Amino acid sequence: MNPKNTIMPDTNSEADTVSMTTEGDGGEEDIPDLVPIEEQSRDEYFASYEDVEIHRLMVNDVPRTTAYRDAIYKNKHLFKDKIVMDVGAGTGILSLFMASAGAKKVYAVEASGMAQVIQQVARDNGFSDIIQVFHKRVEDIILPEEEKVDVIVSEWMGFYLLHESMLNSIIIARDTFLSDEGTVFPSEARIYAAPCSLKSLYSEQINFWDNVYGFNMNSVKQYALRSKMIKPEVCLVPEDDLLANPTCIKTFNLRWITEEELRLFTETTFIAIARAGNYQGLCLWFECDFDGRDYDEEGKEFGTVVTLSTAPSSPSTHWKQTVVVLGYISEPESAPSHNNDSQEIELTCNEGHPAPHSQDEGHSEACGNTSNINNGSDEGKQKSNEQNQTVETSNVEYGIYKDYKVDVDEVVGWKIALCQSDDNVRHYTMTVEMLDPEVEEHPMPCQCPMPRCLIISKMIEKEDMEADDDIIDCT
Ligand SMILES: C[S@@+](CC[C@H](N)C(=O)[O-])C[C@H]1O[C@@H](n2cnc3c(N)ncnc32)[C@H](O)[C@@H]1O
Ligand SMILES: [Zn+2]
């Protein structure tokens, strides 16, 4: 991966940075020396980022990379003559954007071996004196004279936002290196959810077993569905398959969020169906805002907000969407009773260490199965992440799986919980529980159109309007 004859390790140096000799633009230059990354940091996670193909897939993800470019170029006031940090710089693409936007210093921090090419990339683009590479985990670097940075930019997002959980590292970098007035890009991240049908997944992978060369393979069909129910599907969900308007289940303000807030969150949602169909899954995705707006002395706004969306309605990205496949189990002869059979699925993303397969304990391994996510150019990154993903399930029993058809205005509900492991912050368990809207308590306020929720929403609306009327205009 290293460019031939260009990297000159200097283990005598105390500096944290990467140095390269050059036969390129400027000849000998006074640039920092390479200190190899500590062995303990070379874990499997960073090793996976030494596959340059993963970086090609990310850089080639046009909505992703142009969102960062636009956010930086359309908010140059944040970067011009500023000291900035690129956390997890990869190939250095975001560092190049920031240097091009006029940053006076870019600290490019990269723990994987990719760090070794960034300095040459900087040199090849005339930024060798601007971009300074740290080949370390951001948690381990020390800036000269405890310098603070004006902006931290990072692409830390994983599937359904939190898979990989690089966000903890961003929070540590922010609390250590960002100046009081500093900016974090992206500035806000939101997780969305919507009930969905999964027409192509069902027709291609589940209903396929209905008739196999004239034989009844219904048992294989049940097995296929069950295996889908116990792991998240990373796939593209057509917008038409969404059965309700998306609901935001979590907002992260990246300037202020704490590591504590990443440990656990739960959200209960009740929502009215907007499109009749088979309710087969819960579709999750995320959006990020880069808010660079500010005001000049005359109160005039400048800068802009750029949004990176991974919604089914947006151009597809390598994150696609994440789907929790639902199944409705009922005893033979009885009607499907989704309301009584609330289903709980645990999806555990366990970096680097697939759990042992154990049917007896109700656990199953779902690593390396990329059949559902092998859509074109995304495969490499998907593979790398999927192989690290183990899945546990509980309370899912064999039974007869029924369609659950929903009609417009029908209310459906679920509770989703994301819980970070105490031992490993990259390890999340997602629990999805289907809720009976007639029985379970609704949040307050609730967006669903059931009479009690409608009355409460109207009352809140009225109180808000009265409060607005009470505000005295002093202008
Ligand atoms: C999703 S990639 C983004 C790469 C690049 N910024 C881009 O936009 O193409 C995340 C990168 O962050 C690096 N990384 C993750 N955690 C890190 C940490 N704690 N310190 C330094 N680098 C880290 C990974 O090795 C990987 O190269
Ligand atoms: Zn409600």
What are the SSEs and their pairings?
Elements: H1 44-48, H2 52-59, H3 62-73, E1 83-87, H4 93-100, E2 105-109, H5 115-124, E3 131-134, E4 149-154, H6 167-177, E5 178-185, E6 188-196, H7 199-206, H8 218-229, E7 233-235, E8 247-253, H9 259-263, E9 264-272, E10 277-278, E11 281-291, E12 294-295, E13 301-302, E14 305-309, E15 321-325, E16 328-330, E17 344-349, E18 363-364, H10 379-387, E19 391-393, E20 400-402, E21 405-406, E22 411-420, E23 428-435, H11 451-470
Parallel strand pairs: 1-2, 1-4, 2-3, 4-5
Antiparallel strand pairs: 6-8, 6-11, 7-15, 9-22, 10-21, 11-14, 11-15, 12-13, 16-20, 17-19, 17-23, 18-19, 22-23
Helix pairs in contact: 2-10, 3-4
S-adenosylmethionine binds at residues 46, 49, 55, 58-59, 88-91, 93-94, 109-112, 114, 137-139, 155, 166, 169.
Structure overview:
It is a single chain. With about 475 residues, the chain is of the alpha+beta class. The chain folds into two domains: about 120 residues, Rossmann fold, CATH 3.40.50; about 240 residues, Hnrnp arginine n-methyltransferase1 (Distorted Sandwich), CATH 2.70.160. Helices cover about 25% and strands about 25% of the residues. It is built from eleven helices and 23 strands. The strands form six sheets. Strands 6, 7, 8, 11, 14 and 15 form a six-stranded antiparallel β-sheet that branches. A hairpin with a 5-residue loop joins strand 12 and strand 13. Helix 2 crosses helix 10 and helix 3 runs parallel beside helix 4. The longest helix has 20 residues. The protein is globular. The N terminus is likely disordered. Bound molecules: S-adenosylmethionine (SAM) and zinc ion. It is an enzyme of class 2 (transferase). It comes from Meganyctiphanes norvegica. Keywords: Methyltransferase, S-adenosyl-L-methionine, Transferase. Its EC number is 2.1.1.319.
